[in-house]
Design brief:
The protein has 13 helices and 5 strands. The chain is mainly α and 402 residues long. The strands form 2 sheets. It has a 3-stranded antiparallel sheet. A two-stranded antiparallel sheet has the order 3-4. It is found in: Cytoplasm.
Length: 402
């Protein structure tokens, strides 16, 4: 696959040869055509001026006008021949380049079996899980792109085409429709859905007040804030949210709408609603396909490095599903693995006692690390190899659940 990509890149470079200077064959043809067009306009203006002169002071000398006209025609014929010759030559060279690209690059893409590209293929039993992940990903992020638009049609389409359970797809469809209404500044359905006293309800109140202020109705904005916010704070005891309302009240006084951050507030409400909806209906906030792809993209460089070392040292992974090195990923892509057993204390690690990697890459639990380093006050030897370690040189390990 690397050889194929390298060949494709090389042939593409030949196809766009001279592009850096803006002089590909097709670009030259376009430039020549533009210059020919400009010259025709100049000749047209020249002939118009000569015709005007012939009707004036040169009206007694038509031969002079005819001579100038003949010169303009000859100039036009010469320009046309130059343009026609250049355009034909550039077009011919461009077609030749494309034919070479087709022969040396495009056709070779089909000279191999697709299955031969992958060195670590999915087993046939995993296909159903991949298809399920694709269906859930589309249900989560791409409902607006499927051909059906009504709710029942979307549910049927997701079930028939992607095999998504109708109960799950019904929830995703409802969530997508409410998000669409939020983007269209219709807060009614979301306000009716949200839990009373939730942070989402408060943010929706602020968004509604911003809409009223943007419309120019300061009186309605003030009355809405006076009715909704004190009542919300009384019920929830969340008086610390007062500072979020103060800027709106200030804008009412100074009659300014420039400080309104409507788009930011709308997006905040959409994210809060999506998280609460997914949590309430036991749906994943991020699709598994998204998590796997993002983890793979960020981890790819580490796998390439390990693959190089593996080939040089002639070693291999010892067991199936084993990852012999730690990959640094952001928190939203990581999760605690509940079955890791500390090899020193023989205890299962927990969130309070997470696994840590030593400089030699052996892994022990936090409690073991504290005990060996005497709470970080001294260096110690790894219990599995003679490498000396210090607490400051260790790092917390995140195991990814894919």
């Amino acid at each position: 696959m690397s050889e194929l990509l390298g060949n494709l890149e090389c042939e593409y470079q030949k196809l766009t040869d001279g592009a850096a200077a803006g002089q590909t064959h097709l670009k030259k043809c376009l430039d020549d055509t533009h210059n020919f067009k400009m010259n025709i306009k100049k000749l047209k203006g020249y002939l118009a001026k000569q015709a005007q002169d012939a009707a004036g002071e040169d009206s007694q000398n038509p031969a002079k006008f005819m001579k100038r006209r003949q010169l303009a025609v000859e100039k036009l014929n010469k320009l046309h021949k130059q343009w026609d010759s250049g355009a034909r030559k550039s077009s011919k060279l461009a077609i030749q380049q494309y034919s070479k690209f087709q022969k040396n690059a495009i056709n070779k893409i089909y000279d191999f079996e697709l299955d031969q590209v992958y060195t670590n293929q999915f087993p046939p039993s995993a296909r159903k899980h991949v298809e399920s992940a694709i269906g859930l990903h589309i249900s989560r992020y791409n409902l607006c792109e499927i051909p059906e638009q009504d709710s029942e049609g979307m549910v049927r389409y997701l079930e028939n085409v992607y095999g998504v359970n109708s109960k799950i797809s019904t929830n995703f469809v409802e969530m997508a429709q409410m998000v669409r209404q939020l983007r269209q500044d219709n807060l009614d359905s979301c306000m009716a859905w949200c839990s009373e006293g939730s942070n989402l309800e408060f943010e929706l109140h602020l968004l509604k007040a911003m809409f009223l202020l943007q419309s120019g109705d300061k009186s309605a904005t003030y009355l809405y804030l006076l009715k909704s916010i004190p009542d919300f704070m009384t019920k929830t005891k969340k008086s610390f949210l007062r500072h979020r309302v103060a800027p709106l009240l200030a804008q009412l006084v100074i009659s300014s709408e420039t400080g309104l951050k409507l788009e930011e507030q709308r997006n905040k409400c959409i994210e809060l609603f999506t998280r609460e909806y997914c949590a309430r209906n036991s749906l994943p906030f991020d699709s598994s396909l998204f998590l796997v792809v993002m983890s793979g993209i960020m981890s790819f460089q580490f796998f390439i490095k390990y693959r190089t070392l593996q080939a040089a040292r002639h070693v291999d992974w010892t067991t199936e599903n084993e990852l012999p090195f730690n990959v640094k990923l952001p928190d939203f892509l990581t999760n605690f693995h509940p079955i890791f057993i500390c090899p020193v204390l023989k205890e299962e690690t927990t969130k309070e006692n997470p696994p840590y990697a030593l400089p030699c890459h052996h892994i022990i639990s936090k409690f073991s690390l504290d005990k060996l380093s005497k709470n970080g006050t001294c260096n110690f030897k790894c219990p599995y190899c003679p490498v000396t370690a210090a607490r400051s040189k260790t790092s917390k390990v995140n195991f990814v659940i894919l």
